[in-house]
Amino acid sequence: MSKGHTPSTETRRPDRAALVIAVFLAALGGLIFWDASRLASATGYSGIGPATTPFVIAGCLLILAVWTVFEALRGDFPTRDRQEVAPVVWIIGGLALQMLLLKTAGFSIATGVLFAATAAAFGKRKLWMTIPLGILICLGVWLIFAGLLQLSLPAGPLEHLFW
């Protein structure tokens, strides 16, 4: 026996978070399998049809769910760091503001606010700088998508100045 090695006397408990993830994976795989089974009758002259890829994805998700259960019961997942709440709140708040502003303020302003909130979540809290920068970047994206690609994105007062 090597020096300093002592057998662990504590028993490993199942990882509850991993078990929840396994249930979610299994439910998602089951849902995709159920939805794809309704498409199975639409095959053409070959056995491959529109349901083939969803069946493969559902099967992979179910395999991952079973694998996750085994790993959770063995307790082999590494210990996770403590979740920081503030960055999550910044991003969720930015998404909520984007959804609220999208119709009235337009794509550039709404998505620029989301950009600034995400930058704040990653530590760049200078909103006086990130909001205008985000709006300019998103205006460029809007001009490319709406102008060149002829895709319909919500236009607000800023976009009406350019188009």
Q: How would you characterize the overall build of this protein?
A:
This protein is 67% helix and 0% strand. The protein has 163 residues and is mainly alpha-helical. The chain has two domains: 73 residues; 76 residues, no CATH class. Helix 3 packs antiparallel against helix 4. The longest helix is centred in the middle third of the chain and has 23 residues.
Please outline the helices and strands.
Layout: H1 16-37, H2 52-74, H3 85-105, H4 107-121, H5 127-148, H6 157-162
Helix pairs in contact: 1-2, 3-4, 4-5
Overall outline: flat
Total number of helical segments?
A: 6
Head-to-tail CA distance between termini: 77 Å
Number of domains: 2
Q: Residue-averaged pLDDT, rounded?
A: 87
Structural class by SSE content: mainly alpha
Counting DSSP E segments of at least 2 residues, the number of strands comes to 0
State the helical fraction.
55-70%
Q: Sketch the topology as an H/E string, one letter per element.
A: HHHHHH
Please tell me how large the radius of gyration is.
Answer: 24 Å
Q: What fraction of the residues are assigned to beta strands by DSSP?
A: under 5%
What is the makeup of the main sheet? none
Please mark out the parts with pLDDT under 50 across 5 or more consecutive residues, or reply none. Answer: 4-9
Pfam families: TctB (PF07331)
Protein name: Putative tricarboxylic transport membrane protein
InterPro entries: DUF1468
Keywords: Membrane, Transmembrane, Transmembrane helix
